[in-house]
Design goal:
There is one protein chain. This protein has about 350 residues and is α/β, with parallel strands linked by helices. It is about 50% helix and about 15% strand. The chain has 12 helices and 8 strands. Helix 2 links the parallel strand 2 (about 50-60) and strand 3. Helix 2 (about 65-75) crosses helix 11, helix 5 (about 145-160) packs parallel to helix 8 and helix 9 packs antiparallel against helix 10. Bound molecules: uridine-5'-diphosphate and magnesium ion.
């Protein structure tokens, strides 16, 4: 499958068939149940024949998430645990996972059981039929507020109207990526990690699979509305320059009408004369123009800020530590427990 893909990334031999990447931020409540269900699901996929790894990325959690992950890894040779140096956000945590995963295919899944692990079998089969990206589309979003659903719908409308690549609606980050798709993503240098846009941008054979999204099993959402709004702006400005153009059109249009109006006023004053009657018009003009100018400046600032961020060329995340699968078990065996010491 990788033979035609040499332009961007050197082919890395896959160490296992499937890597499952799980970003986790303050998920101590749900992780034990999640892992149990995930492993049960993975073992149920006969196509995998047990050849999988689970890469957990602890995104600077403030609760016991890391400890729970380390404990799980001590008893399960398929778990790798990455620990980021602080909370970098889900997009960065996923990027970290994508860099560390060694599977021939990779699945991104949330830790809160909103993305059912039981769908992995279907995703793997779709991949084996030749798909590079298997997008999981939510047909229902139980347990989410009316406002969140409505704003999500609007977000997809706006971004698809503006952006040059089509971003499938109601497809979250739950998806499967083939090795060449992962390699392509890993090569993208930008630090604006609007992943939904990047997944669409890489192209290749994309397949849509529908599923019902469940409410969170435990714990709390990490996306307050302000963060979601920032995320939306990030997505739109990262994948479209149309707002920049809109600002110039609006500015041009207003300036042009103002000029025509000024001519009209001039002629009127010269022929009929004028008292101080024009005050409302004056103040209105000032306000409208001021508003438009601010808007245009804001939009330019948005892109400028993005450029500034890119120009720093900072890494997307810093890894504190990564213990690949089996590392913890090996550590345990090496530690001089009495039994081991006696045998030596
Ligand atoms: N997450 C993360 N870093 C963050 C926020 C969230 O790694 O800064 C993870 C979180 O642990 C979960 C996934 O991203 O596995 C989705 O988060 P959440 O369920 O809060 O988002 P929602 O489903 O409400 O959109
Ligand atoms: Mg969630």
């Amino acid at each position: 499958m990788n033979s035609t893909f040499t332009a961007l990334a050197p082919a890395v031999p896959a160490a296992c068939m499937l890597s499952v990447i799980v970003p986790a931020y303050n998920e101590e409540e749900v992780l034990p149940i999640f892992h149990q269900r995930l492993v049960a699901a993975l073992n149920g996929v006969t196509e995998l024949q047990g050849s999988f790894e689970v890469v957990y990325v602890n995104d600077g959690s403030k609760d016991g998430t890391l400890r729970i992950l380390q404990e799980l890894a001590m008893h399960d040779a398929s778990i790798g645990v990455a620990n980021l140096s602080r909370n970098f956000g889900k997009e960065a945590a996923m990027s970290a996972g994508l860099k560390l995963a060694r599977g021939a295919a990779v699945i991104l899944i949330d830790a809160d059981l909103q993305d059912p692990p039981e769908l992995i079998g279907e995703m793997v089969r779709t991949w084996q039929l030749g798909a590079d990206v298997v997008n999981m589309k939510r047909v229902s979003r139980d347990g989410e507020t009316w406002f969140k659903k409505a704003s999500a719908a609007w977000f997809y409308k706006v971004i698809n109207w503006l952006s040059e690549v089509h971003i499938p609606e109601n497809v979250g980050d739950f998806r499967l990526l083939s090795r060449r798709a992962v390699d392509a993503l890993n090569q993208l240098p930008e630090s604006n990690r609007f992943m939904k846009g990047l997944f669409a941008w890489i192209g290749y054979k994309q397949v849509l699979v529908e599923y019902a999204r469940h409410p969170r099993a435990a714990g709390q959402t990490k996306w307050p509305y302000v963060k979601l709004l920032n995320f939306a702006v990030e997505g739109i400005t990262g994948f479209s320059v149309v707002p920049l153009r809109l600002a110039s059109y609006a500015g041009f249009l207003t300036a042009f009408s103002a000029f025509v109006y000024a001519l009209f006023l001039l002629v009127k004053t010269l022929t009929i004369g004028d008292s101080v009657k024009g005050f409302p018009t004056l103040i209105l003009t000032i306000l409208i123009l001021g508003g438009l100018q601010l808007m245009a400046m804001g939009i330019i600032g948005e892109y400028l800020g993005r450029l500034f961020k890119e120009s720093k060329r900072r890494p997307l995340f810093l890894l504190d530590d990564y213990k690949p699968p089996q590392a913890m078990i090996a550590d345990l065996a090496r530690s001089p427990s009495p039994a081991v010491a006696a045998n030596a």
